[in-house]
From TrEMBL:
Residues 139-174 form the RING-type domain. The keyword Metal-binding applies. This is RING-type domain-containing protein. The keyword Zinc applies. GO terms for molecular function: zinc ion binding. Keywords: Metal-binding, Zinc, Zinc-finger. It comes from Thraustotheca clavata. PANTHER family: OS05G0141500 PROTEIN.
Length: 187
């Protein structure tokens, strides 16, 4: 009888222990599952952010590539234009052979040069005229030295001694200089 009671008590005690352990394990599992779920949610969020970042980056890369292609095209066009301009410049300054040009190309070049020369002459005249009218006593060529030469026969007095020695015609009226002599003081 006693033995039977002990056995029963023992069985009850074991059952209680098993239940307690089961509760403990169940409690642990729930917390573990919750923790894992939170971690999983965080990982999903991070993954979404990474995907968005990746999309943004690849979009930017595509934009940069398109921009690069446009710039490359522009640079090539400019290179072609520059080659044309350089060639034209060599022809205009007489440094390139003109034999390969056709009659119409030569005529066009001639009229371009004539127009340019006309504009340069007009501009020079205007500057000489302005210098004379403003009665500035500095040389109209070097713009630094004082005027010190008078030309004959036109009697213009616009250049310094150094600049006067380098010209054969008067810069104001293009008349040939037959003689020149130094002047002193103001007019
Ligand atoms: Zn001068
Ligand atoms: Zn003169």
């Amino acid at each position: 009888m006693l033995a039977a009671k002990y056995e029963l008590d023992s069985t009850n005690s074991t059952a209680i222990q098993v239940n307690s352990i089961r509760n403990h394990i169940t409690g642990l599992n729930v917390r573990e599952i919750e923790r894992k779920a939170i971690v999983e949610i965080q990982l999903h969020r991070q993954l979404d952010q990474l995907k968005a970042l990746h999309e943004f980056r690849s979009e930017m890369m595509q934009k940069m590539e398109r921009r690069y292609a446009r710039l490359k095209k522009c640079a090539n066009e400019l290179r072609v234009e520059l080659a044309k301009v350089l060639k034209l410049n060599l022809q205009l300054t007489g440094q390139a052979s003109l034999t390969e040009l056709s009659v119409s190309e030569l005529e066009s070049l001639e009229s371009t040069l004539e127009n340019g020369l006309q504009q340069i002459r007009q501009s020079l005249r205007q500057q000489y005229k302005d210098a004379i009218e403003s009665k500035v006593e500095t040389c109209i060529v070097c713009l630094t030295e004082k005027v010190s030469m008078v030309f004959l026969p036109c009697r213009h007095r616009v250049l310094c001694g150094n600049c006067a020695l380098r010209v054969n015609t008067c810069p104001v009226d293009r008349k040939e200089i037959h003689d020149m002599f130094p002047t002193f003081g103001s007019i």
